[in-house]
Design brief:
It is built from 34 helices and 17 strands. The protein is of the alpha+beta class. The strands form five sheets. It has a seven-stranded mixed β-barrel. The N and C termini lie far apart (137 Å).
């Protein structure tokens, strides 16, 4: 609170500054200024001495007290805009004969007067607003325009200010500003979309009376954008004269790299300083690298070298309707109460493109009327996607705005709020269409005005008063790029190549993510992050997917457990198979450390020590070497260890999409029929991104597609036929039986000799991670059966070779016996007798035939046949 008594106020001009007298006018004022409410939420704020001086000047013989009610959110100008309400003194009537019948004047002492709007800033800025108000609006009186009543350039005797500040004091006709709020606050707090759209209709319905005498002119006639060296643009702005000197927005020379650069033409700014260049223009936007570089601001927008074929030269030739415009129409220059709107701030009111009043409002809706989460990392690409949707709607090719809600999370917005702002933008563009030239069916004049407006606003985002959130600014940058690309296409130009690839979360990791130990923990961490959930979406969607009695864990933790088991098995496959309890303890500790503890195994499925009495002699050493060499030998497929770990991570991603419940006897069972095939089809983009080598990609796809091989082989074949399992165990101790060789032949033929051992190891890990109550074999039996089959695969090449040699030997014996019998004139039983004598012999047909000739004569054969 400030109480002023006998304060001297100096004024360098009165309400009509053209009639300012030299010297000072002294007024002695006794008035209390209460500004406590104005400091709420910002204790360090204080009413500027110049504002006090202006209020006291106006209070002279009129007010006894001035109560500050609110501070209105400033726009980009930085001005203080305050609302006061005065307590009136009884008017000084002296002995005025015209008032003799009015009654006692003192009754009015202490009454409350009409609210005042007080704006303070530099004299030249407010003088411009005062001039334009009197020039353009004095004869357009309306209850929906703030009335400016006084312009004061003042010094307070107590201020100590070196330079004077000015104040504008006005009021509202027909409104109570105690209830009025800036439009941006109303839209932010309003859940009623219809009311928001109605307010916009009211604003532009009032402005229609300003736009009733339009004339088509080129955008070169828009001095807030193109300021030419000699004031007005040349009469002909077509190619022959587009090289005329002009500064963009009255300041920036895009031919210059920076303020100190020298170019063939230039002109100082209104302050007399050298014009700033591209660096100064884009200084606050360096995070948007393509925007501020030479190839864009210089070459694309202006033209390479001395050419004038840049986009800006094309736009200044474009026509648009001109009329009286507000010039700075944004949500903070519109005040609203329950029923009415008022326009304020006429500093830039003048002649300009009618569409500019729509464009500025549209952009500020994005900046000020919605709060975006500044931590959202994907605003740029999604903002461009949103703007293309809105642009399609503008051109009538999109019937619904509902897709806007789907983009909200990525942009960092509430879906309902984003939908509301998008609807307001659509409404604005619908209203703006009335002022588009009929010759531009594509609405290019509005797109051009919108583009130039957003280009002008982007550098202003650095100002403290701009109040632009980082996410909102990125949204506007997305609008900028979409508009530029659209205008380039409309004008037959090649859009600027930003050299940026579309954001793809899959590129954030490589296949080597799983290479080092502890892969399960890394994957689990990534799945808790926003980007990780995008790039590992098929894995994340396993969370909470329960799998029935065979499994204890949900599909997500089961998957990470399988990965951890596979990783431990790869470190020492033989030990992992021989000591499942050791393996389980190791993995359980690792998973617990990663925050995913495994439940203990049930007693009947515990991993007891194996008793592999069939592994005798040097067989354990040979089997261990075989398992080690699986991942060390030269192979047409690279990174077998890595591929097996990726199979562990991705093998069940098809389960959420294939889960069904089926009646089986008296129970219901959860099934995932075909999930391995569906999973491969689901992973197309992922596998292409992480495994550019097609051979690796095919091998991994086969691992995933056939990952059930181990369960089918052990569960459906070996455990249901003990003879087969025992036959596998005895392979190293004698001649294999025919059924075992047939089994090995069939399984290798199905998936290949290189894939099958990896699938068996994966199946062992999968079995350890299942832990459900519906298990027919303990883990130890599963491990022993896996060892037996792997041993069979180890011996398979020798077994196959021996079988082929035996077959070849038998064929040679048959051939030799048949030929020798023919030589002796014998057949039938003679051939069988000769084959028996060759049983212990080996060699080619000719070698066996020579042996027969040397050892058996016709007489011998006749005697042998007689004995038979």
């Amino acid at each position: 609170m400030s109480h002023h008594r006998n304060v001297a106020i100096e004024s360098t001009s009165g309400p009509d500054f053209e009639e300012a007298r030299e010297g000072s006018i002294i007024r002695w004022v006794n008035c209390t200024i209460v500004d406590g409410l104005l400091r709420l939420g910002e204790p360090g704020w204080s009413l500027a001495p110049s504002a006090k001086a202006a209020l006291l000047w106006r209070a002279y013989q009129r007010y006894s007290e001035l109560v500050g009610l609110k501070r209105l959110g400033g726009g980009l100008s930085g001005s203080d805009v305050l609302v006061f309400r005065p307590k009136l003194k009884a008017p000084p009537v002296a002995n005025d004969p015209d008032l003799t019948t009015s009654g006692p004047i003192d009754v009015l002492n202490g009454a409350w007067g009409s609210p005042l709007l007080v704006k303070t800033d530099r004299p030249e800025k407010l003088r411009q607003e005062w001039t334009r108000y009197n020039l353009f609006l004095r004869d357009r009186q309306s209850p929906f325009i703030a009335q400016l009543e006084e312009f004061l350039v003042v010094h307070s005797s107590e201020s100590g200010e070196d330079k004077p500040l000015a104040a504008l004091i006005g009021s509202f006709l027909g409104g109570d500003t105690l209830k009025a709020e800036p439009l941006d606050k109303v839209i932010r707090g309003c859940s009623d979309l219809d009311r928001c759209l109605k307010l916009l209709d009211q604003v532009y319905g009032h402005l229609d009376s300003w736009h009733n005498n339009v004339q088509a002119l080129s955008l070169a006639q828009w001095p807030r954008v193109f300021q030419f060296q000699h004031g007005l643009p040349p009469s002909d702005v077509h190619p022959a004269n587009t090289s005329a000197t002009w500064l963009l927005f009255g300041q920036f020379n895009f031919q210059k790299e920076n303020r100190d650069a020298t170019v063939t033409w230039d002109q100082p700014t209104w302050t007399g300083a050298p014009s700033p260049g591209r660096q100064e223009f884009s200084a606050h936007l360096r995070w948007e690298v393509p925007f501020g570089n030479t190839a864009h601001l210089r070459h694309h927008l202006m033209g390479k070298g001395d050419r004038t074929d840049g986009l800006l030269f094309e736009l200044l030739k474009m026509n648009a309707y001109y009329s009286l415009t507000h010039g700075d129409l944004h949500p903070r220059n519109v005040l609203c109460d329950a029923e009415n709107i008022w326009l304020i701030d006429f500093e830039h009111t003048g002649i300009g493109p009618v569409l500019a009043d729509y464009a500025r409002m549209e952009i500020m809706l994005r900046l000020w009327c919605i709060e975006l989460n500044e931590g959202s990392s994907n605003v740029g690409p999604l903002a461009e996607q949103l703007e293309r949707l809105l642009l399609a709607h503008f051109h009538g090719s999109e019937s619904s705005l509902e897709p806007v809600r789907q983009l909200a999370a990525g942009i960092g917005a509430n879906p309902d709020e984003l939908y509301k702002i998008a609807s307001c933008i659509v409404q604005l563009r619908t209203l703006a269409r009335r002022w588009c030239l009929k010759e531009f069916v594509d609405g290019r004049d509005y797109l051009a005005v919108l583009y130039l407006t957003v280009l002008r606003l982007l550098p202003l985002s650095a100002q403290p008063k701009a109040s632009m959130g980082a996410g909102n600014l990125r949204w506007c940058m997305g609008l900028f790029w979409v508009l530029e690309e659209s205008l380039d296409h409309i004008l037959g130009r090649t859009p600027f190549d930003r050299g940026q690839l579309p954001y793809d979360p899959l590129r954030l990791i490589s296949a080597d993510l799983l290479l080092e130990e502890g892969a399960s923990g890394r994957v689990h961490y990534l799945c808790q992050t926003s980007d990780g959930r995008d790039l590992l979406k098929p894995v994340v969607e396993l969370q909470g997917v329960l799998q029935g009695n065979y499994h204890h864990l949900d599909a997500y933790q089961h998957t990470l457990s399988v990965l951890a088991y596979v990783e431990a098995i790869l470190a020492d496959p033989f030990k992992a198979l021989c000591h499942p309890a050791w393996l389980d303890e190791k993995v359980s500790k690792q998973m617990a450390a990663a925050g995913m503890p495994l439940p203990p195994m049930l007693s009947y499925q515990s991993a007891k020590p194996l008793n592999c009495d069939w592994l005798t002699g040097d067989m354990p050493t040979q089997l261990q070497s075989y398992l080690t060499e699986l991942f060390n030998k030269a192979s047409s497929v690279e990174k077998l260890r890595l591929l097996l770990k990726w199979c562990a991570l991705l093998h069940d991603v098809g389960k959420p999409g294939t889960r069904t419940v089926r009646q089986k006897g008296e129970t219901q069972e959860v099934q995932f029929i075909g999930h391995e095939v569906y999973g491969v089809s689901l992973l197309g983009r992922h596998l292409s991104a992480w495994f550019p080598n097609s051979t690796d990609r095919t091998f991994l796809s086969d691992l995933i597609r056939y990952h059930h091989t181990s369960h089918q082989l052990l569960g459906n074949r070996l455990f249901s036929d003990p003879n087969l399992l025992n036959g596998l165990k005895q392979l190293g101790h004698g001649e294999p039986n025919r059924d075992v060789l047939k089994l090995l032949d069939e399984e290798i033929a199905k998936v290949g000799a290189e894939l099958l051992p990896l699938l068996l190891l994966h199946g062992y890990a999968d079995r350890l991670a299942a832990r459900g109550v519906k298990q027919s074999q303990p883990v130890s039996e599963w491990a022993e059966a896996t060892l037996a089959f792997l041993n069979g695969l180890r011996l398979y090449p020798d077994l196959t070779k021996a079988a082929e040699m035996k077959k070849e030997r038998e064929a040679n014996i048959s051939n030799a016996a048949r030929q020798y019998a023919a030589e002796l004139g014998q057949s039938g039983r003679a051939i069988g007798v000769l084959k028996q004598h060759l049983t212990d012999q080996s060699g080619t047909t000719d070698e066996l035939l020579a042996w027969l000739r040397a050892h058996i004569t016709l007489q011998d054969l006749t005697q042998l046949l007689g004995e038979k």
